[in-house]
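> call design_seq(struct)
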């Protein structure tokens, strides 16, 4: 009876976890990702930081329009594979919608933050995947990021900062990174209307 109850509990829990995952990429869905991020307390040591990355795949509409939606799906799964290979099982990887994702890397030495972000960004742009027509394609992404040892309970505020910084990257030509806490963010009032995804 104990084994039956344990098995039932295990499968229910696994089913609930799977329901919170994006079926295409295996990332947490938006609601689950944000909920998991908000639960994170301050880090155990002040020199160990959370690195919160907001990333958006560049020119995703063009990929879909040129090669078809199945190739667009391949681009997203390709991106997800790269992110998972460059993060640990304890890190958080979520799909916020469409081609926008959030990553939280945990326990990163504050001196290594920029290198970790730049390495992931560079890797995404350097690897190829095969389109539906067997053509080799590559993708690029725009990143905004910040690092902090503090609790991430106020993720809504952090997301707003990251979102503004990401729009600036898009306005300035895409395919680059910006430190949302330490680099100036200058957006005209019409910025949100003028940027193409």
């Amino acid at each position: 009876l104990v084994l039956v109850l344990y098995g039932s509990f295990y499968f229910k829990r696994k089913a609930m976890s799977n329901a919170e995952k994006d079926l295409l990429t295996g990332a947490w869905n938006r609601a689950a990702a944000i909920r998991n991020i908000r639960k994170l307390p301050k880090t155990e040591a002040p020199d160990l930081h959370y690195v919160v990355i907001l990333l958006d795949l560049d020119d995703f509409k063009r990929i879909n329009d040129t090669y078809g939606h199945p190739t667009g799906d391949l681009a997203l799964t390709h991106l997800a594979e790269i992110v998972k290979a460059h993060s640990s099982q304890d890190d958080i990887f979520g799909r916020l919608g469409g081609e926008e994702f959030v990553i939280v890397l945990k326990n990163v030495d504050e001196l290594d933050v920029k290198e970790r972000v730049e390495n992931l960004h560079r890797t995404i742009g350097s690897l190829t995947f095969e389109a539906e027509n067997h053509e080799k394609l590559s993708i690029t992404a725009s990143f905004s990021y910040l690092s902090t040892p503090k609790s991430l309970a106020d993720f809504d505020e952090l997301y707003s900062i990251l979102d503004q910084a990401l729009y600036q990257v898009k306005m300035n030509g895409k395919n680059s990174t910006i430190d949302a806490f330490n680099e100036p963010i200058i957006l005209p009032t019409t910025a949100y209307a003028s940027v193409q995804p």
